[in-house]
Amino acid sequence: MTRATDHHLPQPGAVRHHSTVNTVEKSDLGASPFAALGLIPELVRAVAESGYTDPTPIQQQSIPPLLQGRDILGCAQTGTGKTAAFALPILQLLYGQKLPAPIEHKPARHPPAQRKTRALILSPTRELASQIEESFRTYGAHTGLTSTVIFGGVKQGPQVQRMRTGVDILVATPGRLLDLMGQGFISLRDLQFFVLDEADRMLDMGFIHDVRKVLAALPPIRQSLLFSATMPPDIEALAMTFLRNPARVAVAPVSSTAERIAQSVYKVGKNDKPKLLAYLLKDPSLSRVLVFTRTKHGANKVVKQLGDAGYRGEAIHGNKSQNAREAALAHFKSGETRILVATDIAARGIDVDGVSHVINYDIPNEPESYVHRIGRTARAGAEGVALAFCDWDEQGFLNTIEKLIRQRVPVIADHPFASAGGGRGERTESAPRPNQGARPSSPSHRPPRPDQGSDRGQRTDRGDRGSHSSPPSHRPPKPTGRDAGGARRGDGPQGDRGRPAAKPHGRPSGGGSGGGGDRSRGAAAGAQRERTDRQLDWMKRIT
Q1: Rg of the chain (C-alpha set)
Q2: What pLDDT, on a 0 to 100 scale, did the predictor assign at position 422?
């Protein structure tokens, strides 16, 4: 099913004007596969005008039971048409109900009965809420039903005014919804349909308590739906708290990725990721690229690095104002911006046709986020490419992702910035500082007394600092610790290493005092005693 490209995002609280895309003959409506699902001509016409041709598997399984009034527990990978799967039957069921007519006998000053909110769709992010409301407007173009979207980050005035006018369908994020409910601007007592969309992301973002508050405010008699891209046990437990004997629909294994997405990973050091990204962007086949980072600061940094490399990109994350986020997304949709850098907060709300490549600049630490990220490409039956940059310390995240999706992600090693072990060679131990360990920090680290029978670890080419027993030109060396093998390093000249050991406190032995050998041994013993005294004197002064 092909989806028409959107060129703008709706402003929250604004009045919705509907427009058609294509002209469809009424005679063709009855032959549409959507008509075979039981949809009324008004909806089939809107679907055809939007460019849809065939329903997706999730739509084929969800629409009939929803039209029968059953609750739905749906699980499908992203980009498979979950929004249309619940929007079309809700629109049809609301359209089939007669709206309250104005009371004729009352004076003219009394306005007609206000529309009541009869359907609520709860979404985790602003972008996704805007996309859902836009879908309701598109599909309901010929029904006369009204809709609006409310979310935080903008002034509530226009949203409050729109709710006072009355709407049939409300799409909201949990925070702003509870805020306006607390102020008395929104009432859910007439609600007939409740949809919890992207439930797993709702829990990941910490909205579980807000969701429970909304559930507590719902009327007991209603039709409820839960749709999610993944179905962990926590989601099923939550679903059982408000769904009644739901029909289960699933079109792919839990936490699977789209088959049309070609996945691969580049092992690259962290410092080389900007260079690799710029290198890949030289390929013109990367026509519309969505780059995901782990943090907001990282997204801004990537945009700056792209600018330095000559590529224009825009960032979208929670620290951006709503106007800036909508402008960046609109530029990306229209093709004005080739590269959009986003965080996981926006992964579920980016529904853009023609995304050629999704690049995981940072491997997500939550494996489910990987599924949602790469689901931004290969949407509506198209094909796409998902690339990942993996540093050595992200290998554990990659292993968890492969376990979740039940497949190995191929590694591309043929690139200029390849590094063994995913960049393991980029990280090296810091070199020791010069003279490290020269000054012992505690008595347990003090160097031992030199062996009196050997002159290893002693130097004769440096003078003593402040020694009273010899000229300043003969300074003893500082202890230099031990070498990598654990043995003491020989600090003296190589000539000293070869000299015979002398007895430092003994007298020359052997022949007479005038013998040349005795004099030589006596001189060596004196030099040894002098060196030892200087060493001990230096140690006393520093300790």
Answers
A1: 38
A2: 47
